[in-house]
Fold this protein.
Amino acid sequence: MSGTAMQKSESQLSEQTQAVNQHTFTPKVDIWETQDSYNLDVEMPGVDKNGLDVKLEDGVLSILGRVAPDNTVACEKVHSEYETGNYERQFHISEVIDEEKIQASIKNGVLNLELPKRESAKPKRIEVKVG
Amino acid sequence: MKIRDLLPFNWKKERADEKETHLPQRPRENASSDFDRFFENPFVEFGLMRSNLSRSLSPKVNVSETRKEIRIEAELPGMNEKDIDVTIENGYLKIRGEKTHETKDEKAHCVECSYGFFERTLPLPDYAQADKAKAKYKKGVLTLSVPKTKQKETGKRIPVSVA
């Protein structure tokens, strides 16, 4: 998996999103690596904790974000630059990542995933002794 | 007047048409004529520049109107509400702010999100009550509601009398 621990794969519509009959978007993602972990920031404006579904299955991390339908009174669209809908994206996770310790949190429409590296994958300093 | 006519995005459309139909196109004589044309009609070049700049952070905006209010929604994921500045001045609504990412000792593998300073200005119609406007930031979406004044008949009514 050439260097990076994750590989992007654009997924097709799942049954869940098709049922709602809404648009599905691929959210924008930032991937940052630190010494101990990989951090993903996934931009999903309009999604909160209740609309979020993060799954890990067979080394594939699936993110599904649902936007609550707009229940406001009849309004006339005057100008539209974006449409609302669900967000979906999948990532292949390599063995470098400790699957048991993955943590997710969402704040202000951005999902943050922390994927800690296995102890064996972390860089180690080898002490040099004087012979 | 409809708010649609006041939106600058729609003005641009009309202007683009005008540009094609009304501006006389000079035949190209030599290379320097391109240079001259820039000064005659610099906005053509600026128009191009703006489309290139749109790749930087520029929040997408939806505007809708109900009978009581004008609602403006802007997608601003991952902001701190303190970093969003909304003002209404002289009939113009301005949304500005800065999105930052704290870089620690990190290596970027993939950066699709945009960061930095942004500003958007929208003209409001004259029936918008700026002093009663409300803004809230929730789930990464900024929602502004500007109540409308009761539409009065504008212009002076002239009574018609029988001669």
